[in-house]
Amino acid sequence: MAKKQLQSVVELEQNRISIIRTIAVREKSYWNKAKCFCCPEDAAEFAKPLFENADKEYLVVCCLDGKSQPVSMEVVAVGMVNQCLVGMREVFKNAILSNAVSIIVFHNHPSGDSHPSSSDLEISKKLRQAGILIGIEVLDHIVLGDDEFHSIANILNWDSWKENNVIIA
Questions:
Q1: Which residues pair with 64 in a beta bridge?
Q2: pLDDT tens column, 131-142
């Protein structure tokens, strides 16, 4: 009898699973003045200060509520001078935890040229598909340069901004 009890304890040890609790930690605040994003220009203007003087590529995800107001932002990836590896899990993790309705992805080109590369366009398409699957719309992927930006949603003719004309009273 004691041997059978010992065996069941060993089995329990082998079948152990971890219980995980996720806690969001607010690192710092970024002033928004209760503004909603109604167009790529609004979003780019909001994000531009985050990328000033950046010497490598950064990918930032801005999570939005149902009124298209930012609820959280996260630096998802830090790359090199001319590339940044992006994982779908990392892009949507904070959006899920923030109960975001939609997201806007931003990244910079340290060269100053904001024209999206073919790689930028491909990752945007994949992000859009992943967002559809999990129910979080990717409104745009905005590439920032020195004095200009490009909206991949406009380049790829996404209808996200047309549907997003929310006015806050």
A1: 70, 102
A2: 999 999 999 999
Mean of all residue pLDDT scores within the chain: 83
What contacts 24+ positions apart, CB below 8 Å, involve 148-152? 148/114, 149/40, 149/44, 149/48, 149/114, 150/114, 150/115, 150/116, 151/40, 151/44, 152/116, 152/120, 152/121, 152/124
- Cβ proximity of 136 and 95 under 8 Å: yes
Evaluate whether 40 touches 161 at the Cβ level (below 8 Å).
yes
Q: DSSP string spanning 3-60?
A: HHHHHHHHHHHHT-----------------TT----SHHHHHHHHGGGGTT-SS-EEE
Condensed to tens digits (0 to 9), the pLDDT of residues 29-67 reads 666 666 788 899 999 999 999 898 888 899 999 999 998
Q: Which two tokens stand for residue 81?
A: 């001078």
Residue with tokens 């002033």: 31
